[in-house]
Design brief:
291 residues, alpha/beta, eleven-stranded mixed beta sheet, 7 helices, 13 strands, 26% helix, 22% strand
């Protein structure tokens, strides 16, 4: 096993200021930084402290997947996960090219954490533990956004092994197009205590600021044959169901990044999210019913 943490990002931009910050942070902390490109990536990309894989380099890898995954899709990030696993990563941290590290992001990751535990609570809007606003994460069912989660003070606090850890992002957090079209931003989350979802409790988590420890690496797979806006959300539901069988609560922690969001067409985002608005609850119900 390597002594290194790995940071994995996918991007089609050149060496932006944020990518430079991530590369410099990795150098300072002795992390490895893998950046996965796509068709629109500059062919001459160079950034000190960053191991860049453009399409040509990806195709030369001994990975059958590199030839099967469609281009112009976020799921090519899977190649970065595979390279980190092959490198013996002791943890894999993933983010995006528009997220800026804040205090705590570069802290050493641990498997065990003390957290308030939600069990058998069905849909739990974790954002409400960190904000008094009516805000919800991308992928959360729209007909559940008004429901209040269990009171934090009434939750049992205990130490848990959590190989999947979702930290939040300030300013432009990962919310859906409905929120962005109707509600105000930016948002600053409170520095609240950790929350962990155990069996019977569900909340989508994303790929914006997420830590994976080795036992959970097989659950990182991003599906390629679905919309860009659902790939990490549907992954999160499958990962949660398998984590439940292994007694791995999914951990949610305070914001350790802030997002300066890349330009998006919000109506296009909305269209890409429609499969989730219509099917996310059905998917979770199907997963929950599996033996």
């Amino acid at each position: 096993m390597s002594k290194h943490n790995y940071l994995v990002v996918t991007s089609i931009s050149g060496p932006s200021e944020i990518l430079r910050l991530l590369a410099q942070g990795c150098q300072n902390q002795n992390w490895k930084f893998i950046l996965i490109g796509d068709e629109a990536s500059p062919s001459n990309f160079e950034l000190e402290g960053c191991d860049f894989y453009g399409l040509d380099r990806q195709k030369k890898l001994n990975l059958e997947y590199a030839g099967k995954c469609p281009t112009r899709h976020y799921a090519r990030k899977n190649i970065g996960y595979l390279m980190a696993v092959a490198g013996g990563a002791k943890t894999i941290v993933e983010t995006d090219d528009d997220n800026i590290p804040m205090d705590g992001f570069w802290n050493e990751r641990q498997l065990e954490h003390k957290a308030a535990v939600c069990e058998k609570a069905r849909w739990v809007n974790v954002y409400k533990y960190f904000s008094e606003r009516n805000i919800w994460p991308r992928g959360f069912p729209l007909d559940e956004i008004s429901a209040e989660p269990p009171k934090y003070g009434g939750l049992e606090k205990r130490r848990l092994d959590c190989p999947i850890q979702q930290s939040l992002a300030d300013d432009n957090p990962d919310v859906d197009a409905v929120y962005r079209l109707t509600m105000p931003l930016p948002v600053k989350f409170a520095e609240s205590g950790n929350v962990a979802l155990d069996r019977g409790s569900w909340c989508p988590f994303n790929s914006q600021n997420t830590t994976w420890l080795p036992c959970a690496y097989p659950l990182m797979y991003l599906p390629a044959y679905c919309s860009f806006r659902m790939t990490d959300i549907w992954r999160s539901f499958v990962a949660q169901r398998i984590a439940q069988e292994n007694d791995w609560p999914v951990l949610f922690t305070r914001a350790t990044m802030r997002q300066e969001r890349n330009a998006h067409n919000l109506m296009r985002d909305f269209a890409d999210e429609v499969p989730g608005y219509l099917n996310n609850k059905k998917i979770v119900e199907a997963l929950a019913g599996l033996k």
